[in-house]
Design brief:
Nitrilase/N-carbamoyl-D-aminoacid amidohydrolase; 17 strands
Length: 295
């Protein structure tokens, strides 16, 4: 594991122009690398608009096989810059079988591993169950030249079980590509509660597991093609937290940003010595966690 990781986070808006999105991503990744990043993390489903606001079978055309055109594109970038790159793609696994998949590239451009999103939401404007089959790769860290990356995706970030299993499987850091925002009719107080809960949950995973957390969200308004809602204003606010939940960086809620944050990876060892949560777990008493509900 690297003693220090310089993590680049790319918080950007997206449009319906796929080529323009790829050009912007290319430039933003290079910008992070020019600032010293050896790890760059992109937001969820970054190649396109967040298409899950509606249920439209034509949008399955956005999906690609893995490996495929996008993995070739990002592999070349990772290799040319000598970085570890965390991407988020719409995977076409087979006819009628699709996943929301994070693909990680190592510094030589090889695919270090992939993670298929396990928890799939189905809420107004987030109709992901229509598009994505739940992941079947489990909560397995991806081994890279920088260390073991515990990559999870968006809705996974609300589940402490996912973060814990990644930690118990040897993850050195938790990473969450994300697409989350507000519907404009929500009152301001509710918007604040939602964003605060989102941040608190992930900082809690950092504290409970003694690991750094990187969460990268998209930003900007994306309209609802159906016109039934006012669209989603993605709230940005990407952040990096240390193993005690301390903020190492917080991005804005409304601006595109490329930022490089230095993470002391050796700090986790000391934090886990001070707060030995893994030592004191009562693994003999947790059987009920495997039930849907304790009636």
């Amino acid at each position: 594991m690297a003693k220090t990781i310089k993590a680049g986070i790319v918080q950007q808006s997206c449009s319906g122009d796929l080529e323009a999105n790829l050009k912007k991503l290319y430039d933003n990744i290079h910008d992070c690398a020019s600032k010293g990043a050896n790890l760059v993390v992109l937001q969820e489903l970054h190649n396109s608009l967040y298409f899950c606001q509606t249920e439209n079978t034509n949008l399955f055309d956005l999906a690609e096989p893995i490996p495929g055109p996008s993995t070739s594109f990002y592999s070349d970038i990772a290799k040319s810059l000598g970085i570890v790159l965390v991407t988020s793609l719409f995977e076409r696994r087979a006819p009628g079988l699709y996943h929301n998949t994070s693909v990680v590239f190592d510094t030589d451009g090889s695919i270090a591993g992939k993670y298929r999103k396990m928890h799939i939401p189905d809420d107004p404007a987030y109709y992901e169950k229509f598009y994505f089959t739940p992941g079947d790769l489990g909560f397995t860290p991806i081994k890279t030249s920088l260390g073991k990356l515990g990559v999870l995706v968006c809705w996974d970030q609300w589940y402490p079980e996912a973060a814990r299993i990644m930690a118990l499987s040897g993850a050195d850091i938790l990473i969450y590509p994300t697409a989350i925002g507000w519907e404009s009719s929500d009152p301001e107080a509710e918007k604040t509660r939602q964003q605060d809960a989102w941040v608190i949950s992930q900082r809690g995973h950092a504290v409970a597991n003694g690991l750094p957390v990187i969460s990268v969200n998209r930003v900007g308004l994306e309209s609802d093609p159906s016109g039934q809602t006012n669209g989603i204003t993605f709230w940005g606010h990407s952040f990096v937290a240390g193993p005690q939940g301390e903020f190492l960086y917080k991005a804005s809620s409304d601006k595109e940003e490329n930022v490089v944050v230095e993470i002391d990876m050796e700090r986790s060892e000391n934090v886990r010595r001070w707060w030995p949560f893994l030592r004191d777990r009562r693994i003999d008493a947790y059987q009920d966690i495997l039930k849907r509900f304790n009636d």
